[in-house]
Amino acid sequence: MSTLDSKETGESATRESLLRRAQADAHGSAWEELLQYYEPFVRRTLRAMGVEEGEADDVCQQVLAHLWRRLVDFQPDHERARFRTWLTRIIRNTAVSEYRKRMRRQRVSFAESSILESLVGDSSDIEQRIEDEWQRYLVDLAMDRIDEIFSGNAVEVFLRSVEGESAADIGQSLGLHVDSVYVLKNRVRRRLVHEIKVIREMLEFPS
């Protein structure tokens, strides 16, 4: 069972970052656990960058191979060498290398040429796009945990409130008092913030 699968009710205890553990043992369970979280992120990032679905799996595996070989030597410096800046370069450089190989083999379509142009463009823009994708990914992981933790209408109440529906309308459609709607919404919101914090501690290098 993954470390993140345990249900927690209080403030998260201090944990050693999963990245730190994977650095210390690239052949152990920490690396396998790391893959559970970073492989989907890398794949969805490549898709968001315009890499076609049929190519994304191959490029993703190349990115993860580079990550596995080089993670042991990475030293975080939050002023100059943030982990996702480093990972962004690996994703971008791997994708660019793959498309250039395809161009040399004259197997690149017009759409793929456009993707290559965007990949070799403004690196700061690509870094920001990947950072934004990471933030969305953390929320998605946390929402998966929230779905396991809460029963009844709590999650639906929260999601509908986030979408802008009024407490009165939510309460009327679900047969809840308005006060109960606010209680459920705030309870889920607090737990979501907590779960994101827990996941950050596991999947990022300590600040």
Description:
With 207 residues, the chain is mostly helical. Helices cover 71% and strands 0% of the residues. The protein has helices spanning 18-24, 29-48, 53-70, 83-104, 110-119, 123-149, 154-162, 167-174, 178-203.
C-alpha Rg, in Å?
20 Å
Please trace the helix and strand order, writing H or E for each element.
HHHHHHHHH
Low-confidence stretches: 1-15
Q: CA-to-CA gap between the ends?
A: 27 Å
The count of DSSP E runs of length 2 or more, i.e. the number of strands, is 0
What count of helical segments does DSSP give?
9
Helix content: over 70%
Shape: elongated
Structural class of the helices, strands and pairings? mainly alpha
Summarize the main sheet: none
Strand content: under 5%
In round numbers, the mean pLDDT is 81
